[in-house]
Amino acid sequence: MKKYFVSTMIASSIASVSYAAEVNYAQIFAGKNACFILYDLNKKKTIEEYNSKRCKERIAPNSTFKVPLSLMAFDKGVITESTIFKWDGKKREMESWNQNQTPRTWEQYSVLWVSQQITPKLGMKAIKDYLAKFNYGNQDFSGDKGKNNGLTHAWLTGSLKISGEEQLKFLINMHNYNLGITHAAIDNTMQNIYLGKLTDDGWDWYGKTGSGRRNTSYQGKTERVRDGWFVGYLQKSGQTYVVVTNLTDIKTPTGSEHDTSGGPQAKAITQDIIKQLQLK
Questions:
Q1: Which residues are CB-neighbours of 240 under 8 A, at least 6 positions away?
Q2: Which pLDDT band, with edges at 50, 70 and 90, does 216 fall under?
Q3: Which one from 63, 110, 159, 261 is the annotated catalytic residue?
Q4: Residue 256 bears catalytic tag
Q5: Beta pairing, strands 194-196 & 14-15
Q6: Burial per residue of 227-255, b for 16 or more beta-carbon CB atoms within 10 angstroms, e otherwise
Q7: Alpha-carbon torsion, ordered 218, 222, 224, 228, to 10 deg
Q8: Is the pTM of this model over 0.85?
């Protein structure tokens, strides 16, 4: 990114670079169907991938959709950096949602009601045009079947789906300003998804989590499983990586696992992997 980054296939299971420590992905992702991709933007190549089959599988983006939605809203002029989203006074499940929001706190606290204010202002046609321009997953914004709720629910374990590999291509194009939108829209979005230094090795992190729950079948039983995403960038001293992690439980989680959302888990796992890889 001009302001935040210095600008600068894949084996069937795991590809890695010589300086990376060996990571036991099967252990890290035990009990989950998961994807991990690390892409070196300077060298323009994937240097680490786990489970390429899963990385091609489309699932709902959940709150990672706030990244393209932010790009759309800034590009269209629906929001600016000084926009204040007024809270309607309704108490919601997350305490951090129960207040006025800014474009940064919308991303930081992953505030659903802000997204659901923005999408109707953009309108279905504009959103579909942007999804096509971004080549974003299956581009299906129709919503839940028979409910006509695409503008408010399409990305929430609904009709819109995207794979890990497609998220990677989207993030590469975003970094390279190849989405056909204003540079300011990208720069503003990057500023708002900056997470700080999440590990003790000096990397600046930018990114977004996504969490969802859905029913699936396993060995003839219906299981209630979590989907989790972390997508973003790492940057330090002129080196930039794109990182994509997603996961889905194989079976219904129990105990403390049941109470943990998939997105924070994907983020924590990503941090753990990056530490183990000892990136230079």
A1: 5, 6, 7, 8, 40, 41, 42, 175, 233, 234
A2: confident
A3: 63
A4: no
A5: unpaired
A6: bbbbbbbbbbeebbbbbbbbbbbbebbee
A7: 30
A8: yes
Exposed, middle or buried by CB within 10 Å (0-12, 13-18, 19+), for 14?
middle
Would you state the structure tokens that stand for residue 229, as one six-digit string? 């995403």
The H or E element spanning position 119 is helix 112-122
**90 to 66, 97, 98, 153: CA distances (angstroms):** 21, 10, 7, 19
Instruction: Tell me which residue has tokens 């299906």.
Output: 140
Tokens 């207040």 identify what position?
99
Contact between 168 and 66 under an 8 Å Cβ cutoff? The reply is no
pLDDT one-digit tens code per residue, 6-54: 333 333 344 444 445 689 999 999 999 999 999 999 999 999 999 999 9
- Whats the size of the chain, residue-wise? 280
Q: Are 48 and 20 a contacting pair, CB within 8 Å?
A: yes
